[in-house]
Design goal:
It is a single chain. The chain contains five helices and no strands. By secondary structure, the chain is mostly helical. α1 packs antiparallel against α5 and α4 runs antiparallel to α5. The longest helix is centred in the first third of the chain and has 30 residues.
Length: about 130
């Protein structure tokens, strides 16, 4: 029996693309910060450790984001991003790190909004569920 796949609406595709762009934007931001720290004379072991602490919780969700059939991954990533947002606001109010903190917090807010929009649209148009 062959199945015919209905085309995915453009709004769902755009929401997923926006969430992936913001997700990998956070990876890029953390990597850029690690490179700046490395160039400013911070020991490499410290830089690598701090980069891993920032990136590892995000990388747990990478397999679920690659598959397009699991809304639970997107929902759990929303919860994790809230913790990153708290950290970003704390950094934004630290002296000397306003720009980094603002970019970090804007990426967190954009990712959270894109994830919520994707979850809502996928439930509506694709009939996906948060339950297994």
């Amino acid at each position: 029996m062959t199945q015919t796949w209905a085309p995915i609406p453009a709004s769902v595709q755009r929401a997923r693309l926006a969430s992936l762009i913001c997700y990998f934007g956070l990876f890029g931001l953390f990597t850029g910060k690690a490179i700046v720290n490395l160039l400013s004379g911070v020991p490499a072991t410290v830089v690598v450790f701090l980069w891993l602490v920032a990136v590892m919780p995000l990388s747990i969700f990478l397999p679920g984001l690659r598959r397009n059939n699991s809304l639970r991954t997107y929902a759990w990533l929303c919860f994790l991003i809230l913790m990153y947002f708290l950290h970003a606001v704390t950094i934004a109010f630290t002296t000397g790190t306003l720009f980094y903190g603002m970019v970090y917090s804007v990426l967190c807010v954009a990712l959270f909004c894109a994830l919520v929009v994707y979850i809502r649209l996928a439930k509506k148009y694709l009939g996906m569920s948060l339950l297994r």
